[in-house]
Amino acid sequence: MPDPAGQPPPVRASGAAPPRASRSAADRLLAVLGAFDHRNAALSLTEIARRAGLSLATAHRLTGALAAWGALERDAKGSYHIGLRLCELAALAPRGWALREVALPYLEDLYEATHENVQLAVRDGLDVVYIERISGRSAVGVRSRVGARWPVHATGVGLVLLAHSPAAVQEQACARPLTGFTPHTLTDPARLRRTLAEVRRAGCAVSDRQITEDALSVAAPVRGPRGDVVASVSLVVHAAGAQPPTLIPAVRLAGRGISRALGWQPGPASA
Amino acid sequence: MPDPAGQPPPVRASGAAPPRASRSAADRLLAVLGAFDHRNAALSLTEIARRAGLSLATAHRLTGALAAWGALERDAKGSYHIGLRLCELAALAPRGWALREVALPYLEDLYEATHENVQLAVRDGLDVVYIERISGRSAVGVRSRVGARWPVHATGVGLVLLAHSPAAVQEQACARPLTGFTPHTLTDPARLRRTLAEVRRAGCAVSDRQITEDALSVAAPVRGPRGDVVASVSLVVHAAGAQPPTLIPAVRLAGRGISRALGWQPGPASA
């Protein structure tokens, strides 16, 4: 079963690497950073050069510049890792840790009330990216990690984010091949469309064993000051014996709490 | 009062910008990223060019490359922000979110046991960088943020990290001017040295109103598999009425829990 977290994002239109001859200096530097991913978090210089498609000399020069700046760090064995300076920058991302900072007290409340997995995610193209996860010791195992990507159609947070996306994005999501992770994954475009309409109507999404056979998630929208859905919060619980109706109010409440903290004010007819 | 978070790190030897004429393409691209900080999390193209010391044309080309790659995002008003792609990379940093992921259950336990501010930090040169913070609603206000930097001498986590640093780092810390944030900040090198010895002896640090007049922190070491101190965990409480002896066991326990999760095994004589 492929781990989507290890794949490049499917709809970053300009993300395709240009032909090698025409690569700019900026592209080459970013290719060094792009050599790192979940499965390749520690890389030798040779591996960086190979994965970035660079000569060893160029890779050496660029990793040197990145390490001097703090974007990369080198361990005792000589392997390179992502450095603290990028963590400092990431903390400034409005859709990343800045949002997470506002949301955290509400996520903690949801965790204390349930002791289940609590997640916060945003949409990037046709993927969701998890920007926070609080896991209980006895909670069901989940395959998300902070910074991980999953396709929108297969997760509770993804269904919420997709249901409130522009029509063109929804069409794009339904038109592409829908990867199945279990027999329960929504891989039929017509069923996905019906589910999205239901998510909009209900104000929440239930994703039943779509990623793993033992987990069910309940997700609700997080709105920004203008009322648009900017993120989604979810609870992930053991599918066996799960009773979504008992979870939905808490998840929706957490979503509304974060929305208010972001400056959203419910209108008279708001769900 | 200057906010150290907005200043460049004091001991990143190779971090000083080279004379403009000799700046490489890599340096220019990194200067665009370096234009962003806590006080400048949203920047126009003009501001990026000015802060990075680049022509408008060069800044335009480089922000374009960074935005196409996902390192920057542009909002509806045309301002640039740090993008999700850097959050994904930051999640791979072994001293950042990868460490935080291992530590989080223990930080949550410490939070549930105390409902005070819980922090996790690592050392970068003579600064500490906070990589996690869990704040209670009624806990004392703290000036740290995830991704923020503070000088090692002025914080509980910093005293722990400095006390277990190589002798050369400790000397460097004592030799530089010690910024005072309150009348209680350790600004006397001799007193700082005595405090560091005491921290090593006690296995924890108490930082009393060093950053703000109303906060006291108790910090303990987090050890890696080889026994070296790789991070520090702390509780920050209201200074008025604080009783450090009642807090120290919980903080030390959290530190030991995270250390074990990282693969540390206490030796027979380990504190």
Structure description:
Chains A, B: It holds the Pfam family IclR_C. Two copies of one chain form a homodimer. Chain A is of the alpha+beta class. Chain A has two domains: 18-90, Arc Repressor Mutant, subunit A (Orthogonal Bundle), CATH 1.10.10; 97-261, Beta-Lactamase (2-Layer Sandwich). Chain A has helices spanning 25-34, 45-52, 56-69, 84-90, 97-114, 156-163, 167-175, 189-202, 244-261; strands spanning 72-74, 80-82, 117-124, 127-134, 149-151, 205-208, 215-223, 229-238. Chain A has a six-stranded antiparallel sheet, with helices on both faces. In chain A, strands 1-2 form a two-stranded antiparallel ribbon. The longest helix of chain A has 18 residues, at 97-114. The radius of gyration of chain A is 20 Å and the shape is globular. The two termini of chain A are 38 Å apart. Chains A and B meet through helix 1, helix 3, helix 4, helix 5 and strand 4 of A and helix 1, helix 3, helix 4, helix 5 and strand 4 of B.
Characteristic key phrases:
homodimer; 271 residues; alpha+beta; Arc Repressor Mutant, subunit A; Beta-Lactamase; 6-stranded antiparallel β-sheet; 8 strands; 39% helix; globular; disordered N terminus
Largest sheet of chain A: 6 strands, antiparallel
C-alpha Rg of chain A (nearest Å)? 20 Å
Instruction: Examine the coordinates and then state which fold CATH places here, giving the name of the CATH topology of the largest domain in chain A.
Output: Beta-Lactamase
End-to-end C-alpha gap of chain A = 38 Å
Q: Which CATH class of the largest domain in chain A applies here?
A: Alpha Beta
The arrangement of helices and strands of chain A along the chain is: HHHEEHHEEEHHHEEEH
Q: Which CATH architecture of the largest domain in chain A?
A: 2-Layer Sandwich
Number of helices of chain A: 9
Low-confidence stretches of chain A: 1-19
Instruction: Write down the domain tally of chain A.
Output: 2
Q: For this entry, what is the oligomeric state of its chains? A: homodimer
Approximate strand percentage of chain A: 15-25%
- Overall average residue pLDDT of chain A: 86
Helix content of chain A: 25-40%
Shape of chain A: globular
Helix-strand category of chain A? alpha+beta
Task: State the CATH superfamily name of the largest domain in chain A.
Answer: GAF domain
Identify the strand order in the major beta sheet of chain A.
5-4-3-8-7-6
User: Total strand count of chain A, please?
Assistant: 8
Of all chain pairs, the largest interface belongs to: A-B, 62 and 62 residues
